[in-house]
Amino acid sequence: MAATRFPLTLDLADETATTRFAEDIAACLAPGDVIALSGGLGVGKTTFARALIRALADDAELEVPSPTFTLAQSYASGPVPVTHFDLYRLSSPEELDELGLEEALATGAALIEWPERAEDELPPTRLTIAFAIAGDGRAATLSGSGDWQRRIAHSRHVRAFLDTTGFSGAARRYLQGDASSRTYERIRAGDRHAVLMDWPPAEAPAAGDRRGAYRARDVRAFVAVDEALRDAGLSAPAVLGADLDGGLLVLEDLGSTGIAVDGEPVAERYHAAIGVLATIHGEARPDTLPAPDGGTHRLPAYSADALAAELDLFLDWYVPHVTGAPAADAARQDFAALWADLTGQLAAAETSWVLLDYHSPNLLWLADRAGLARVGILDFQDMLTGPVAYDVVSLCQDARVTVPPALESSLVAAYVALRQADKGRFDDEAFAAVYAILGAQRATKILGAFARLADHTGKPRYLQHIPRLREYLKRSLAHPALTGYAQWYRRHLPPSA
């Protein structure tokens, strides 16, 4: 990892070097951060600030004027809102409160030119970058406290990794994060582009975390599953470069065209995705895969215990969310008994690979490819072995896109027809019961997960999906296999839930 002992001085030979430096800082920026930009006139402070703001917005042409006269200018686009302050004309340090620094840091970050005019009013954990003329270029000296050294060390390590994988000097743009510790960037070098996965190696699951035992903990699992899917003729992204110990992968960029458009499922694309599942399930699949370091990666079994572990989210978060009180002990005991019986009924279900989150956020449409290869598959590192109906439910009751009942029925019928044509003998009635049980299980656990994200981690946007999940759960509860759970639900939760 690149040395980052502060103070750290970097040579910036030209404006391109300053831009890449700004992108590296943007990649590790977080809400609440203050970056103080010091140095005289013409040393590159505004050039750096402009490049960082444009990187966050992913807009190389974004107008970013110097806030010399307005004193502050805010930019809301991108993963972290940022406010650009120029304190050259500040009359007194106390004026900083009037400019809204505290409000800016509540949800975003701040870039501050001429920070010395604020005296002691800035947070002590800020990063300071002192710019100076250095020959024909510039020099930037970094200092600061908090975890800035660690963050900058990691971002510089990413840059060094990219330099070894054919993406030297690549532009870095935030792509997305998810509920895990993984983040993604889209990287561009000339006319080449790819996706960077940044997945810091995880510690062992916390004591008492039943779900953690079934989740992958590093990029080796991703690479193992990726190669298995590609060997099966499916469109998982090719791995173009890897730092296995550092948790970094450069992946083929499959684009951003999804199987849903403007929040609506595209029937042709969903049917192609169903065909992918029928292909996976139509052959015996191994539960142990070659790992990229020469070892093996064993797929966990999606056992009754694993399914039950996920349902804890519903009792712990969704029930209090809709009732205002924790689930009563008696309700918990009845719930556990019901689900022990339901998951026990899955013991005889047909099993295969379970991609786990096989739905619209993780499925891309590759129109230039043919057949099943038109479906690009992402986010599969947690693949397990378990009931084949699970991924069918994931797609046909898409948690992020409303699948109308008619399309759901059409997709399930298409899957059954493909399996019957392939296998000859396929018990559609047994499959329908397993489908209903897993539909109820999936909707139940995601209701709990989304309530937790909204109430515990401050992400209320997840509440918009709850009505859809309630409707899916209602569909599943109509199956005779779910009569007991339907009665429990009516007994313990309000009608609106």
UniProtKB/TrEMBL annotation:
Location (main, coarse): cytoplasm
Alphabetical list of CDD domains matching this protein: SIMIBI
Any one GO molecular function term: ATP binding
GO BP of this protein: tRNA threonylcarbamoyladenosine modification
Gene Ontology cellular component annotations, sorted alphabetically: cytoplasm
Key words, A-Z: ATP-binding, Cytoplasm, Magnesium, Metal-binding, Nucleotide-binding, tRNA processing
Ranges for domain Aminoglycoside phosphotransferase: 175-416
Keyword Metal-binding among record annotations: yes
Pfam families, alphabetized: APH, TsaE
The keyword S-adenosyl-L-methionine is annotated on this UniProt entry: no
Family: Belongs to the TsaE family.
Protein name, UniProt field: tRNA threonylcarbamoyladenosine biosynthesis protein TsaE
Lineage summary: Bacteria, Pseudomonadati, Pseudomonadota, Alphaproteobacteria, Hyphomicrobiales
